[in-house]
Amino acid sequence: MSKHGRVLVAMSGGIDSTVTAAMLHEQGYEVVGITMKTWDYATSGGSKKETGCCSLDSINDARAVAVDFGFHHFIVDIRDEFGDWVIDNFVEEYLAGRTPNPCILCNTHIKWAALLRRADALNCEFIATGHYAQKRFENSRYIISKGIDELKDQSYVLWGLNQQNLARTMFPVGGFRKPEIRKMAEEWGYKELAQKSESYEICFIPDNDYRGFLKRKIDGLEERLRNGVFVSVTGQVLGQHDGYPFFTIGQRKGLGIALGKPMYVVKIIPETNTVVLGEEEDVKSNGMVVKNINMVKYPDAFNGMETMTKIRAHHAGAPAYIKQENGKMHVQFHERVDAIAPGQSAVFYDGNDVIGGGHIETGFETA
């Protein structure tokens, strides 16, 4: 066994996980590669060609890297686990009028658990992924912080990892910028991979059409919800829509209704199949309640503190005061923010460090 230890590397066939595996191998770790098949594209019914982390091409790319460097590679089928947790939750959240982030649920409940189980079976002390994030040990806590490359930072999707998971996790690419990772891939002979375009779709919706996915997944959904109603913030009926699950808070385009001025989805009411529309100011709020809290950096921070808080993956973050009450985080923004969407994740930052995060339960407005 290597003096550095044995590490199980999650390999998607993409550039980041390839460089992760190559980097650790070069550093002297005993690398074992693993590719997890989470979804069968043939059952998705979408129109896009099979691509991404579960495609045969990606699996073959990952295996080829393992052959090149001379380490073992395994393929693990976790479709049943993934479907029960992630896809069912995705559907249920939209039916509840919320906007889920399946990548975070997958990280928290599926990928890390699956990786650690296989790591134990293969006698690996560590697991490693290609996420752009960093980890350190400080004040008896493992802390997640942003990746060096702010444009690629993925710390937002890792807020749900617990201390036991973080203790065994490595993020080798988090200390580099994407151009540096591309250069490394080219130097190792993977020029084509280094220029490969990246996919930002949800892995089980390769055509990026979540509405079509919901229609295919739930028999009769379109017919059942066809006669939904648009109303204004004052309750005036504005028109009809094809079903509340097909809208998200803050949505402006693709509403299917023309009202002579830009209108936004302000609220979704599943019980009456109603979508409330308003102007830009109507979709802003200055507070929210966050549930399912996981505190990464300050586990005992109950008395309140100032943070930068992100309400979605590509949100720059906004200054806010947070305070835990009755197991939930109450967040008061210093200025109103756009489109607080129940179901999305809120992540609290102290500089570059992740304080913790949770799921948005509701937004609110205070005087």
List the helices and strands and how they pair.
Layout: E1 6-10, H1 15-27, E2 30-37, H2 56-69, E3 72-77, H3 79-95, H4 102-121, E4 126-128, E5 133-138, E6 141-146, H5 163-167, E7 169-170, H6 178-187, H7 191-194, H8 210-217, H9 221-224, E8 228-232, E9 237-241, E10 264-269, E11 274-278, E12 284-295, E13 305-310, E14 318-325, E15 328-338, E16 345-350, E17 353-364
Helix pairs in contact: 1-2, 1-6, 3-4
Residue windows where pLDDT falls under 50 for at least 5 positions: none
CATH topological fold name of the largest domain: Rossmann fold
Spatial order of the strands forming the largest sheet: 12-15-14-13-16-17
**What class would the helix/strand composition place it in?**
alpha/beta
Q: What is the rounded Rg?
A: 22 Å
Distance between the termini: 62 Å
CATH superfamily of the largest domain: HUPs
As a percent range, the share of strand residues is 25-35%
Largest sheet data: 6 strands, antiparallel, barrel
Backbone shape: globular
CATH architecture of the largest domain: 3-Layer(aba) Sandwich
Tally the beta strands. 17
Q: Give the helix tally.
A: 9
The average pLDDT value, as a whole number, equals: 91
Helical amount: 25-40%
The CATH top-level class label of the largest domain: Alpha Beta
